Recover the amino acids of this structure.
């Protein structure tokens, strides 16, 4: 996965976010329908989940083929989707798929926390090329992101356990993405304080 290749950014965005949007649209179309397959009734959510799994596998595989690499986050997400989505379809129980974001955020938060206990920032290894920061800045950002991930895990549990499936789908499709975007947007002061000279030079006019 080291032979990195650049691809059209619109194509990359389509492969990254397309499966999630297809899931959302398909759910809205099929949410009130029940499908009888092999003598068992499946509601629209389960059927859409069953279709989402191979779609995500295909899009992730296409990204790997076109770019020559996958991030650890993409690989972990795919594995958990296959496991928890597969359990939901196999057992005809939507709770497993709804738990998937919880497991993802607990995993990422736990990994960041493990790195912090060892005195290192695993986040730096993943994102150093995108956000040049001093080591102290990476440690602060890693701690904040760890707590943020744990908070999202708790929030996902609260939403799917107390709200309707449709509310959870809206939350999963839009709420989580907006929350992550807002988190990094709120770290502007940290980036200014701990940005390296390389980062500052990139923003200095010629």
């Amino acid at each position: 996965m080291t032979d990195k290749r650049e691809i059209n950014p619109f194509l990359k965005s389509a492969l990254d976010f397309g499966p999630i949007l297809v899931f959302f649209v398909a759910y809205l179309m099929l949410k009130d329908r029940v499908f009888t397959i092999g003598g068992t009734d499946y509601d629209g959510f389960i059927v859409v989940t069953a279709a989402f799994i191979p779609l995500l596998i295909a899009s992730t595989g296409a990204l790997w083929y076109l770019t020559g690499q996958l991030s650890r986050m993409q690989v972990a997400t795919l594995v958990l989707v296959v496991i928890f989505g597969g359990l939901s379809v196999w057992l005809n129980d939507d709770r497993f798929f709804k738990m998937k974001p919880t497991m993802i955020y607990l995993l990422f938060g736990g990994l960041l926390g493990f790195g912090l206990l060892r005195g290192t920032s695993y986040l730096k290894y993943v994102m150093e090329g995108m956000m040049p920061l001093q080591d102290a800045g990476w440690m602060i950002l890693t701690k904040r992101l760890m707590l943020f991930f744990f908070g999202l895990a708790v929030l996902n549990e609260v939403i799917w356990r107390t709200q309707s499936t449709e509310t959870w789908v809206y939350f999963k499709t839009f709420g989580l993405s907006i929350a992550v975007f807002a988190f990094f947007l709120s770290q502007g002061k940290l980036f200014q304080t701990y940005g390296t000279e390389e980062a500052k030079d990139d923003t200095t006019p010629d």
